[in-house]
Specification:
227 residues, mainly alpha, Four Helix Bundle (Hemerythrin (Met), subunit A), 8 helices, globular
Length: 227
């Protein structure tokens, strides 16, 4: 059943916030790993914890799409969805395989500092399939979502990601997305939140990401790789 015509429809600009952050951090990750001297377990733990956090964010992001987005598009968007959703699901499967390979190597590297090149190559394979997927999603899925998914349903997609993220990580994850984000889109994302949240989260998010980036990337302003 299609959504009611008088309901506001999805504003998908927040997906670009998430994708830009994922592109940036996963692009930078292989060289971060290669920059850790073999056996330097202290630095391996810093970079490894960052990598693990990114993998959790990615998993939660795609889990929400699997549960809440693809079924609605298949139900409502007819032939257009039939042409693209199976390909998106195949992408998710390929991403899951690469994700499993990388995370399977990550724990040992974090604790020993050994095997960094193998791990970096695994994350490069993950990056390749991830970039292909996000580009296709932006080009083909987001226009369908804007036509067939209500704003309330789209908001639920974001809620799923927040619910699946440990509360202590939420300011960092939001700050990571804000770093290259359009201020107007950030404002729109927070529009339905209580006033204290709208005031505090942007400030706290920026601070948390700056502190995290200094520790991980060695600077509060890591390269902005965008789309």
């Amino acid at each position: 059943m299609a959504p009611l015509v008088d309901e506001p429809m999805a504003d998908t600009r927040d997906m670009f916030l998430a994708h830009t952050a994922l592109r940036r951090e996963f692009r930078l990750l292989p060289e971060l790993i290669r920059g850790v001297a073999p056996g330097d377990t202290r630095r391996a733990e810093v970079v490894g914890a960052h990598a693990a956090m990114l993998c959790r964010v990615l998993h939660n992001h795609h889990e929400g799409e699997d549960l809440l987005l693809w079924p609605k598009l298949v139900e409502r968007a007819g032939a257009e969805a039939a042409a693209i959703v199976p390909r998106m699901e195949q992408h998710h499967h390929a991403i899951d395989e690469a994700h499993t390979e990388a995370t399977g190597l990550l724990g040992a590297w974090r604790s020993t500092g050994q095997g960094g090149e193998e791990l970096a190559e695994a994350f490069e394979r993950l990056l390749t399939v991830l970039l292909e997927h996000m580009a296709a999603e932006e080009r083909e899925i987001l226009p369908l979502a804007e036509a067939h998914v209500t704003a309330a349903e789209w908001h639920r997609l974001g809620e799923h990601g927040m619910e699946a993220t440990p509360k202590q990580d939420l300011p960092l994850v939001f700050g990571m997305a804000m770093y290259e984000g359009d201020p107007e889109v950030v404002k729109a994302v927070l529009a339905t939140a209580p006033l204290p949240v709208r005031l505090i989260v942007p400030v706290l998010g920026r601070r948390r990401y700056a502190s995290h980036a200094r520790q991980v990337h060695g600077t509060t302003t890591p390269p902005r790789v965008g789309r």
